[in-house]
């Protein structure tokens, strides 16, 4: 499962974006977890990145470790 969470950031932060859907200025955490809730991939982006693009970037970044998880499950 992949989900994201927008988090407020300080006004002086160098990298931040605006999530218009949640009305949050800051960062967004994209996290891949298994069915037990254990994390297998994490990516932090600016909040203006879409959930879809963040999910694709997270999968691409953690592709090797996710293949190990899929081999153990299947």
How would you sum up the global shape? elongated
Kindly report the oligomeric state of this protein: single chain
Biggest sheet overview:
4 strands, antiparallel
Number of helices: 2
**Residue-averaged pLDDT:** 88
Stretches where pLDDT is under 50 for at least 5 consecutive residues are none
What structural category do the secondary elements indicate?
Answer: alpha+beta
Distance between the termini: 16 Å
In total, the number of strands is 4
Strand content: 35-45%
Name the helix and strand elements from N-terminus to C-terminus, one letter apiece: EEEEHH
Helix content class: 25-40%
Q: Cα-atom Rg, whole angstroms?
A: 14 Å
Number of domains: 1
Protein name: Transposase DDE domain-containing protein
Biased composition (Polar residues): 1-10
Pfam families: DDE_Tnp_1
Region (Disordered): 1-21
What does this structure look like?
The chain is of the alpha+beta class. It has one domain. Helix content is 30%, strand content 38%. It has two helices and four strands; from the N terminus they run ββββαα. It has helices at residues 51-61, 63-73; strands at 2-8, 17-19, 24-33, 39-46. Strands 1, 2, 3 and 4 form a four-stranded antiparallel sheet that branches. It is elongated and about 45 Å long.
